[in-house]
Amino acid sequence: MTIKNDSFGRFDFVGKAWLFGGISLFLTIASLIYLAVNGINYGIDFKGGTEIQVKFAQAVTIEDLRKSIDDLKLGEVGVQSFGEGNEYIVRFQGRTGKTDKETNEILNADLTQIRGVITTKFASAEPDIRRVDTVGPQVGAELKRNGLLAVFYCLLVILIYVALRFDYKFAPGAVLCLFHDAVITLAVFVAVGKEVNVAILAAIMTLIGFSLNDTIVVFDRIREIEGHHHEKGFGFVINRSINEMLVRTLITSGTTFISAICLYVFADGTVEDIAFAMCVGIFFGTYSSIYVAAPLVLLMEKLNLKKARA
Question: What is the dihedral of CA 38, 42, 46, 47, to 10 degrees?
């Protein structure tokens, strides 16, 4: 990053806008391609199935538990460690029938078999089944649809809000910035093999709000400085606005990032996954509020001027 030799001694963000814009465009397209090719690993919240949380008083290896359940041949079953030790999460989607009633009967029968294996084959390890959550396939599909609609309407409302509060030239930059953050965060989350469930969707919505807050602060400063230095050009206004809010943005994002890191290190299960998504999202959200949102406003301003002269 270069420092511009003017009376303000500021970093020249606008001069590098094309470079960081290209990087952001590449990351967004690469993320979309990755998600399209590899798909999203949905949790039982969205695809339906059953999740069992079990803790053993004595040592039981994850390999033995997985093999015992696989021997039932109930379809794809996932087993993962949870908590401090000898505690596991068993997930299975279950088989489906021709009707909802038949599907529920099959699901209950499969659940009974798995519980039977856990309580009988590992009886000496004193198993304690702490939680059983079941979501039907239709309910899961409805949750997934509603989740996607929630994100869509969220971005639509933000587009309208920014256009009304500031100016229509600010709105595309804000929405594209948030889309950039959400897509890249989701792609990274999927790439490391984690499941996407309702909690992760909530984390992404939270990240959208966090990134929007940073972006709005910069936009507000752009509007303020534009009123005092309009004669110096819009590029100067944007560059000075970003520089004046840089310390505030980095401190706010840094403290939030440290909190998310602590959660990721010391938590487990769903909280750990949420913390991971927050860490990734905060990083890219901070980057986009500095290097993506404001330069897009400058691009819109140039397009407007070009259109006015035509």
Answer: 80
* pLDDT tens across the length of the chain (310 residues): 444 444 444 677 777 778 888 899 999 999 999 999 998 888 877 877 788 888 888 888 888 888 888 888 777 777 887 766 788 888 877 666 667 677 777 777 888 888 888 888 888 888 888 888 877 777 777 888 888 888 888 888 888 887 787 777 788 888 888 889 999 999 999 999 888 888 888 899 888 888 888 888 888 888 888 777 666 777 788 888 888 888 888 898 999 999 999 999 888 778 888 999 999 999 998 988 888 887 788 788 777 777 767 6
In contact, 176 and 292? CB cutoff 8 Å: yes
- Distance in angstroms (rounded) separating the CA atoms of residues 119 and 127: 6
Domains and CATH numbers, the chain: 16-43+140-309 (1.20.1640.10), 49-135 (3.30.70.3400)
Using the CB atoms, write b or e for 150-166: b if 16+ within 10 Å: ebeebbeebbeebbeeb
Burial class of residue 116, CB neighbours in 10 A (0-12, 13-18, 19+): exposed
Q: At what angle do helices 171-191 and 293-309 cross, to 10 degrees?
A: 140
Cβ atoms of residues 304 and 26 within 8 Å: no
Q: 80: alpha, beta or left, given left = phi > 0 and alpha = psi -120 to 50?
A: beta
Quote the pTM value.
0.78
